[in-house]
Amino acid sequence: MIALIRYCRGYVRISVRGYAPERFMNLCANRAIVLWELNGHDGFYTMCISLSDFFKIRDIVHKTKTRVAVLEKRGLPFFLQDVRHRKMFLLGVFLCSAFLILMSQFIWAMEFDGNQMITEEELKRYLEDEGIRYGTPRHFFSAETLEKGLREAFEEITWASVSLQGTKLVVKIQEDILPDTAQKQELSKFENGADLVASCSGTVVSILTRSGIPAVRPGDSVSRGDLLISGRIPVKNDDETVREYLSVVADGDVILETDYRVHLSCPYAYQYKNYTGREKSRKFLAIGSLRVLFPPIRKNFARQDIVTQQNRLCLFGQLDLPIFAGSQTLREYLPVDARYDTDSAKKILLDKFQKIIAALEEKGVQIIQKDVRIVEKADILTLEGSLKIQLQGGVWQALSISDTAKEQETAQN
């Protein structure tokens, strides 16, 4: 802080020599004149003194019979004096300041926090529908209105906060991550009721009905699309005749057992990239979609990978500008033909098979039995897998209004 104050006020670096330079420094101290960065020997000293104090030492110099010479001029007053006659420099400073002030009035970056089920692309698409995109004026929208709109547009969002940090729009949300959130959202689509039908062919292991009328029993074989739980509930008269049908969203747990086939292959012949070590690098400056490369590379490699690194220009940690600076590195490679041995090819196939099993288990599928067979041919190795699995086998199918109307008419007749 002291250094900044001295720079703003201006100071000079002087040399003092003569009959009694030590007496010169003592008199300066008696008159509260501050000297710093003091160096010297054999009657020759250098030191710094503020610009205002420099004009107070004339009588001290006369009394001590010393000679003072200015070695350097430092500080803002001297800088302004130097640039006063440089009109183009002052114009550049003015235009640069005006550019920064203008660019700071727009949104040039977006940051999302707290989203798990909702992707950033969905949030950006919603903001674009509301007229908010890169380059939108900062005061174009109301944060309170946008927060309310986010909660209404996405049922998963229970809390939203929108704020501006410089030129960056920060959207923080909190989602309802209860397991039945997605199910509630899907059920809300069926206003006229829905049936629960089989998602695949298999055998019914168990059925638990929460709403609707069950159409199958454990041990029954079903095909894809067959009715499992009906969403049409008959309302009967006293004589057991159907008076009308009520439409509900059928709901329940139907466990189906089915076979899941896996077919994987791994050719023995493959290619890999052998990097030669030859590289070409170039810097670039990007403003929006415009990218300027320097120096330009006139001739690329026949086969190459491009590695790009870039950073957004951010001033004072707050002003994110649509200006990117970075570098591109072109790495030459040659394709090399190679062959897997049998053990390596088997390992690749088994790793892929394990990934499929892990993905099924992550979805809640229970694997009852596994049967794997590896077949070796002249140029390819194949894996034939058969899994016996149990899964939730019901999906909703909306009731058609015409079918409901026909049933109502039949019941009345």
TrEMBL record:
| Record key words, sorted | Membrane, Transmembrane, Transmembrane helix
- TM helices/strands, residue ranges: 88-108
One Pfam family from the UniProt entry?
YqfD
Record protein name field = Sporulation protein YqfD
- UniProt source species: Gallintestinimicrobium propionicum
